[in-house]
Design goal:
Layout: E1 4-7, E2 26-30, E3 46-47, E4 49-54, E5 68-69, E6 72-78, E7 91-92, E8 95-99, E9 115-116, E10 124-132, E11 146-147, E12 149-156, E13 160-161, E14 169-170, E15 174-176, E16 183-184
Parallel strand pairs: 1-2, 2-4, 3-5, 4-6, 5-7, 6-8, 7-9, 8-10, 9-11, 10-12, 11-14, 12-15, 13-16
Length: 186
């Protein structure tokens, strides 16, 4: 059983006290309006799941050692404008979900993400990028090789979606309601 670490509250300004944490937990960060950064989480190498929502620091930056998430990575209903901090993340066991982030303009953080749902017996929810009205492009998934699940890009201002150029295995493809959609390279 995985332990859950929930980080929430207006009295939290720093995560430096978590710098010895290396992983395995369910990490939920939400509604921390006075948190200055994600520093303190740089030593995390693996998590069971990570969820970020509500008032949180932007950009999301500071998960530089995180290589594996067993279940899901969810960034939803946040005021984040940029996701940049997942430079070592290679695989996510089930789902990457980036949804309903009103100010999100950049998700260039996933340059080393190789697989989503690989090794699962049944298809997963896969990659979901939806309801991010300010997101104009979806870079950062250039080495993503395997998605055992759907690809859902919807309700996103994405005039040029050039990503997934290395994708070889995908269980489903759903592209819904992409405003001004011109290019998808798979």
């Amino acid at each position: 059983m995985n332990s859950t670490l929930e980080i929430t509250g207006s009295d939290i300004t720093s995560l430096e006290g978590l710098s010895q944490l290396s992983g395995g937990a369910i990490l939920y960060i939400h509604d921390v309006p006075n948190l200055l950064s994600y520093a303190g989480l740089n030593n995390l190498t693996s998590l069971y799941s990570l969820r970020i929502s509500g008032q949180v620091p932007s950009p999301i930056f500071g998960f530089s050692s995180l290589q594996h998430i067993e279940s899901s990575l969810t960034i939803t209903n946040s005021d984040v404008s940029s996701i940049q901090g997942f430079v070592a993340l290679a695989d996510v066991g089930y789902t990457v979900q980036i949804t309903s982030n009103q100010y999100l303009t950049d998700i260039s953080a996933f340059n080393f993400l190789f697989s989503i749902g690989a090794g699962q017996d049944v298809p997963t929810d896969g990659l979901i990028i939806s309801n991010n009205p300010m997101l104009e492009s979806v870079p950062g998934f250039e080495v993503l090789h395997t998605i055992n699940g759907a690809i859902n890009v919807s309700n996103t201002l994405c005039p040029i979606c050039i990503f997934l150029t290395a994708l070889q295995v995908a269980a489903g493809l759903q592209l819904l309601e992409i405003k001004f959609f011109k290019t998808l390279i798979i």
